[in-house]
Amino acid sequence: MSPEERRTLLRRAFDAGVAAAHPAICIPPHLPAPPKGRVIVLAAGKGAGACAEVAEKFYRETYGLGPDRLTGLAVTRHGHSRPTEFVTVIEAGHPVPDAAGLKGAADSLRLAEEAGPDDLVVALITGGGSANWVSPADGLDLSVKQATTKALLRSGAPIDAINTVRKHLSKIKGGRLARAAYPARVVALAISDVPRDDPSVIASGPTVPDPSTLADARAALERYKVTPHADVAKALSDPANESPKPGDEAFANTSFTVVSRPADALAAAIKTLEDAGVEVHVVGADLEGEARDVAAEHAGIARGLGAVARPVALISGGELTVTIVGEGGRGGPNQEYALALVRDLAGFENWAALAGDTDGADGGGGSPEDPAGAVVDPGTSERARAKGLDAATFLANNDSTGFFEETGDVLKTGPTCTNVNDLRIVLVDSAGASQHKPG
């Protein structure tokens, strides 16, 4: 394959993974019939706008529901809205929550509390919901929660640790949305963006029992060296902020179904690669860890392939992390992974790699124009050398976006309206493993 053919194939595989997880595909088969009363659609996360659009269309076209029986609110990331008529869609901050998310969470809780025994609450939950549904516990203001979120994101903490803290500083997360809706029936449908698809971690589990405790939240802050604000420390020592556990009556009339997961996106990408004659090796469906360390491992595997009869792809899912040590750098774990590959595969020939977040945003400042990741190959290094750029220097400053903007290797998709975690593919061509240039 030519360099352009490799890049094209990688993008086709990534797009196939994203398409397999779109709400239009995975939500309708799981939507229940309407009750005697109202259907109240409550959605949060990067796919919330599309979920609301799909659910509204389903209940209008299948059951003829009008605004007297169909209502709701979806809170999604800025730039991820979709057109609806009966279910309101608003945009809010991510990954750092903002005032719009504060109001959206309050209005969502109000709608849940208004639900009666004859009503149905359909909770459509996607990754990013933790930031979009922000409802600080008593004694906390938004600025304190924003600062805590920023510190955890910079610390390199994995998503389950971050969400353990979030759940114990919230009035909506950790099962509290279900508590607000009780005794109405709650049907939660989730598009998973977390390793192992843990319902209590997806968007911080607003409708399911929470196995984590206040002590776990305090331990997470200590483990990742985040010094809590005094109000946070107080909240995490207050028994009133403990989340509802299994057996709580709040969950007596609830159900939870994961309707799409990272493995589905991985399977679609694998099929695209195999249909193109590529031999695929899954190196991990739920990978976690420091992005640059995982990249070093995958680069070692690529270099060790030896002579291969046909193109080989190393594919992985999961969610990597970045411990930020630089100042002013831009980028997320996918771009940092790709930049580390550029460094670690220097001198290696006939390869290409794509690393992207299936929601279309990898790090960034919360703009719809943020990169989804990067596509790299030996040409990346050549362009960098021509511009006097050193991958290791940019990596040390956590400035992967800055590097790839210079080399032209940024992956931009715009909002995809779904979120099933990251997708990484390293493609080594037939003779690539035995061909090297001086590094």
Description:
The structure is a single chain. The protein folds into two domains: 184 residues, MOFRL domain (glycerate kinase, domain 1, 3-Layer(aba) Sandwich), CATH 3.40.1480; 169 residues, Glycerate kinase, MOFRL-like N-terminal domain (Rossmann fold, 3-Layer(aba) Sandwich). It has 16 helices and twelve strands. The strands form two sheets. A six-stranded parallel β-sheet has the order 3-2-1-4-5-6, sandwiched between helices. α3 links the parallel β1 and β2. The C terminus is likely disordered.
Strand content: 15-25%
CATH topology of the largest domain: glycerate kinase, domain 1
Order of helices and strands: HHEHEEHEHHHHEHHEHEHEHEEHHHEE
- State the shape: globular
The residue ranges in which pLDDT falls below 50 over 5 or more consecutive positions are 432-439
What is the name of the CATH architecture of the largest domain? 3-Layer(aba) Sandwich
- Structural class from helices and strands? alpha/beta
Order of strands across the main sheet: 3-2-1-4-5-6
The proportion of residues forming helix, as a percent range, comes to 25-40%
Number of helices: 16
**Mean pLDDT score:** 94
Counting DSSP E segments of at least 2 residues, the number of strands comes to 12
CATH homolog superfamily of the largest domain: MOFRL domain
What is the radius of gyration computed over CA atoms, rounded to a whole number of angstroms?
Answer: 22 Å
Distance between the termini: 22 Å
The number of domains is 2
* Text of the CATH class of the largest domain: Alpha Beta
Largest sheet: 6 strands, parallel
Protein name: Hydroxypyruvate reductase
Region (Disordered): 357-380
Domain MOFRL: 312-422
Organism: Hansschlegelia plantiphila
